[in-house]
Design goal:
Two copies of one chain form a homodimer.
Chain A (H helix, E strand, L loop, with lengths): L8 E4 L1 H6 L8 H12 L5 E7 L11 H7 L7 E6 L2 H8 L9 E6 L2 H8 L3 H17 L4 E7 L12 H17 L6 E6 L6 H14 L4 E6 L6 H10 L4 E4 L21 H10 L8 H15 L7 H4 L2 H8 L1
Helix pairs in contact in A: 2-3, 2-11, 6-7, 7-8, 8-9, 9-10, 10-11
Chain lengths: 319, 319
């Protein structure tokens, strides 16, 4: 257990990730209320919106209203997502309240790149070259390489650690061309192929090549292994995780089975706190926010913990 | 990873555990169909019914019809649950088709013992003395000590490994009084307090005292950590798990939040098979049975995997 991190940084993506898949429009005021409630729990990183094509993603037609509408809390970093120059420009209008950093986003699976981004890996690298130039020109630092499908792919099957290393290396090369220093590599289990062993091997391979880079995990609970995978990461010292409160983004209704949720923020917090790893988060407050998220979307969320309550709540009652 | 077991024995408890909490009566024919379908997946241990007070548990009023009605499959061990002599007698009528073994069932939490069994630990030990005598007289071997609330308790709070060891020792003493040899100790996370660290410490403590006993884990996914806990057990060589297909016994509807499901059989199978641990189970067939269980209960079950599909199914498509 020598490698357990003393504390973890949790990047809450519930507001951004959670609402775009909901069938009904979520009122802007509810999105803002959720963001403000999350900031009260001790979370320090909250992704609040997507600046995407509003015709394709009508759930984020109100991105400007949300990002301009919430009351920022001191010490909390708010971020947003964008995929092109237009989205970036929309985000830049809120530069005073958003922490803006640029990513070089790649997929370890060429098949996924084609299916999801509509361009193969080589073409995507070119797009990332252009995007990096645009980011730097706008004064947005590019410090992160993200690897989607880092542990397997529905269209390509298994992904090897060597493929992940090659993908990261390709991203590092783009960064180097532009004189950027990459401090963070994010490995995303986009389609729920990770297992603890694959997490261990993937991290070991990336860390061997880039020992000074900070590795983050973006895990989906597609097949129920997300918490076990996070635990494997923690034991290797991983200290940065993307999560969603309540498991927002997932949905227990079989009709929407494509929407596999991220690892639940509160379940990761429970795991960490019970292992002596600091999160800075008030778990009971976070559980209440998870219940609030459930009321907002109007259906049960995947999180078990928001239904069961924290251990500390029972400890207090038992004492 | 040297301690990973080469194979695990999975004790499927879905038919017994899953139906008693459902609000509507489940037709006997559906229970039988599920049992027979489970036996076709390669599972070798299936708990098929509870011989309990039919007034208190109307969902098992048809225990005799179920146990007498399914077509046994060669090589599969079918078991049932009972809590008193009357239940045992009802089970004995099906001795030709049931594998009957006796347990000494204790709780590591005195408060839970009082709440759940309506008797404290000392009184429960007396009850287990009487029950062990009854079992032996009926020719039922008593080979197992079960410890409920082995990792924590909603009424008493944290449970230490020392308390677990003491509880097992008390059960071992009852067995010794009757000349029984205990081969199996089952540690149950009855209320979802386990974490990987607590699993490691609990197992280490029991194993240090009784190095030759086989330890099994009965895990509930009350707070989302069940798979991580199972993984911690596997890494310590635990090779016996109680599970329920689909996570039967749990329910995603907040109104029934007391009903936290067991770890899903298929998620444990996925974890094991992807780690190279044999289960003997055809995962795709099991996922189909999980979907069948969902149709039978008429609502979505907690399992993520039955909604997402196996990795092998995608591997075949990708190949």
């Amino acid at each position: 257990m020598a490698d357990l991190p003393p504390r973890v940084d949790i990047h809450e993506e519930g507001p951004r990730e959670g609402f775009q898949i909901e069938p009904g429009p979520i009122p802007t005021a509810d999105k803002i209320a959720l963001i403000e409630a999350l900031a009260e729990t001790g979370l320090r990183h909250i992704q609040v919106a997507s600046f995407v094509n509003t015709r394709l993603v009508p759930g984020w037609a109100d991105a400007e209203a949300v990002v301009g509408g919430f009351k920022p809390r001191e010490g909390v970093h708010y971020s947003a997502l964008w995929f092109n120059e237009n989205g970036m420009s929309r985000a830049l209008a809120f530069r005073d309240r958003l922490t803006m950093t640029g990513s070089i986003s790649l997929a370890a699976s060429n098949a996924f790149s084609i299916k999801n981004l509509n361009r193969g890996h080589a073409e995507n690298l070119d797009a990332m070259r252009r995007q990096t130039a645009v980011h730097l020109k706008a004064g947005i630092p590019v410090t992160r390489v993200g690897v989607m499908a880092a542990f397997g792919c529905n269209y390509q099957g298994d992904i090897t650690p060597a493929q992940v290393v090659q993908t990261v290396a390709d991203g590092m090369a783009v960064a180097a061309e532009h004189g950027c220093t990459i401090t963070d590599v994010s490995l995303a289990d986009t389609m729920g192929w990770a297992t603890p062993i694959r997490i261990e091997r993937g991290i070991a391979a990336v860390r061997e090549r880039w020992p000074d880079v900070r590795i983050g995990l973006h895990l989906h609970d597609t097949r129920g292994l997300a918490v076990a995978n996070a635990h494997a990461g923690l034991k290797l010292g991983v200290s940065k995780f993307d999560t969603t409160v309540g498991g927002l983004g997932g949905c227990p209704f079989a009709g929407q089975k494509g929407a596999a949720g991220n690892i639940c923020t509160e379940e990761l917090v429970l795991l960490c706190e019970e292992m002596g790893i600091a999160t800075g988060v008030d778990l009971d407050a976070l559980i209440e926010v998870g219940r609030m998220a459930e009321r907002i979307v109007g259906h049960v969320l995947p999180s078990e913990l928001i239904h069961a309550g924290s251990l500390d709540a029972f400890r207090r009652k038992a004492a």
